Amino acid sequence: MVKLRDGMWLPAEGVRTEYAEEIFNITPLDGEQGLSLLCPVGQIRSRGNTLNMPTVTLDVKAEFDGVISLEAAHWRGAQNHGPHFDLYPDGKPSAEGKISKNDKNATTLASGSLAVTLESEPHRFGLKFHSTEGAKTLTTLGSRSVGFAYSPGPSTPMQTGDMRDFKHYMFFQTGLSVGESVHGLGERFTAWNKVGQSVSLWNADGGTSSDQAYKNVSFWMSNRGYGIFIDNPGRVDLAVGSERTSRVQHSVEGQRLKWYVIYGPTPKEILKKYSILTGKPGKVPGWSHGLWLTTSFTTNYDESTVTSFLEGMKNRNSPVDVFHFDCFWMKAFTWTDFVFDSERFPDPKGQIARLKEQGLCKKVCVWINPYIAEHGAAFKYAAEKGYLLKRKNGDIWQWDLWQAGMGLVDVTNPEARAWYTECLNGLFDQGVDALKTDFGERIPTLDVQWHDKTVDPHKMHNYYAFQYNQLVYEALQKRHGNDEAVLFARAACAGAQRFPLVWGGDCESTPEALAESIRGGLSMGLSGFSYWSCDIGGFEGSPPPWVYKRWVAMGLLCSHSRLHGSSSYRVPWTVDNDDKTEEGCSRTLAKWTALKTRLMPYFYAQGMESREGGIPLSLRTLALEFPEDPTAWFVDRQFMVGSQILAAPVFEECGEVEFYLPKGRWTSYFTGEVKTGPGWFSEKHAFGTLPLYVREGTILVLGNRKESGAVYEYSKDVEVALYEVKAGDKTTAVDYDGNVLGELVVGDDGKIKDTSFLKGDISISEMGRDLNGDPPVAIESI
Fold first, then answer.
1. Residues classed as catalytic
2. How far apart are CA 448 and CA 431, in angstroms?
3. Is 311 left (phi over 0), alpha (psi -120 to 50) or beta?
4. Residue 403 CB neighbours (<10 A)
5. DSSP letter string over 423-452?
6. CA dist 730 → 78, 340, 606 (Å)
7. Helix extents (H) in 481-556
8. Are 493 and 499 in contact (CB under 8 A)?
9. Structure pTM?
10. What does the sequence similarity comment in the record state about its family (predicted)?
11. What digits encode the pLDDT tens for the residues 131-157?
């Protein structure tokens, strides 16, 4: 990470930094609705000052309503190699840029609801971003906030005639106001508010207990009603109130840097506009929301093991909707060659068919990655055909990290993509329905040559995750249908939300790792991703029974819920020696699986709204629903389940938990007790409950208690529960395919106006859901 300053007064050692010092000239952009600013790195007080004077060109452009882009460049003759983010995938909205001047001769560019006003004083540099309706400043580019830097710093301009021994960086610094917080930047497991942190957007396989991230997204959101998207898939370094405590510094290596300022003012509006730029999340099928079970990673398993696990889950009232075969469905040293281990799985097609026919699972997923092991069946063919990444001397790029002598699929080669798709079709022919696209973070940048020679290997490092997941997702769509494709991806970058879903990677089996995972999910939610999951129970190690059960409660409230471990199984009876009591792992899992099954009509309707708005179903911060509540921007141990239900996971073995409720009246899902926020509350919970509160004004559609698993008709035999509703409150009802059937609306008499589009035996509970038939619960207020 490049550092520009050594404290307030000194430049960083070995670095020369040049700042735009004034706006010397303003001209309209040719054919664009914007302005081009010529900004010298020194003040121009005479003609002589224009000589030997570097400049920064800053283009400011109206993109669409509420969005303005800026591009800073030093030497504009430098090539701008790809890959580039695939922006406006659904089409670009029209732009209506308006340029005006005020009585102080200050120039303003407005793009709908967002405006930027340029510094009008001579020999000064500055831009102020504000709404067109109000005077409140969102953020600024203040004095010495845009420029470039050399490392090492040249001692004379003559040295820059040969740039081979120098690195060149572009940077900009947005103002950080008093009380401002910064969120997003992908799936980050550090403190949820990034102020005070230095962040490098560079995909890495670092687990959840470090400052590295599998999913680096060059977008962040402020609690002041705006967001910033950095349009560069390469490494972006941010000093968020760290190098300069009153600024967010962004820097990239190269001669240009482009970014977008996105105005909400609400977080939901910011994310919707961001989704217009980078794409909306894809639709996921209803079955994917059910319970997933895996073989775990390095555990020993074959067909009989898999069958016994699924029968055990079914017998313990935790039916599995999706079963996942992890890496060792293939033989050791062969990953990924797309061939089942014939000794352990002699008839994979028949086995998969039997599992489905016996009702042990509805869908099957297998593990893959973009690495092709030298000792696998696929390597020789792929190498001979030129489908693998090469070194500059023509050798196949190989190393021994992960799989011995492995190569990497060259996703820039159309023929390699077609070959890989055919390999996947072979799996689909055997009954595979979904794919876990693991890895894809350790993409080399040195001494490599991609098939597409126009791409910059540095930018390919992060962007590989987009291209690889796109390849697999589109193969699934082509075989199973556009709305039936499901990934379980680990690596991602901006735009990869279009290929759902992602999970949080390798976490430890501890309460601290559970909290890390929640922070990562919340950050991912404010990075434009709607669907997120984690390894229930933790991946590394063997979870103590109490950690497993607390994680089950949290995991079954995520959009997607998967039991997965590394060297130990995650079927509940192996965790606690098959404790058959109500507080044992098996009964606890059964309770939470049943709860999610009942919530599926709500979950799926909320998921449809989420993807349309580019907002998270999982994990959703309280701040998305309560942006005016300052506390909501700092709560990072709880989340919203959709827009209407608040969940607070428990991290203590004794069951004690402290949680926050925003303004309003909240009803306990389990007991019907009502609490009034805003305020902090403390409770003590057994393993079958946690603080799960329904917001006032909620119309909650619940599935029939007799349903088993996530696959059923979400509009039939439902309970419609009303929680302190008033006239005009409403919700959307959907069927299993996600089709909107109609709106349930509260009339002036406090009753639902029309339920004719619902099917079967419909019950309406006017004082919250009917608690009759629920097992007794004991929740103690502390």
1. 438, 441, 506
2. 37
3. alpha
4. 24
5. HHHHHHHTT--EEEE--------SSEE-SS
6. 55, 50, 13
7. 511-525, 545-555
8. no
9. 0.97
10. Belongs to the glycosyl hydrolase 31 family.
11. 998 778 999 999 999 999 999 999 999
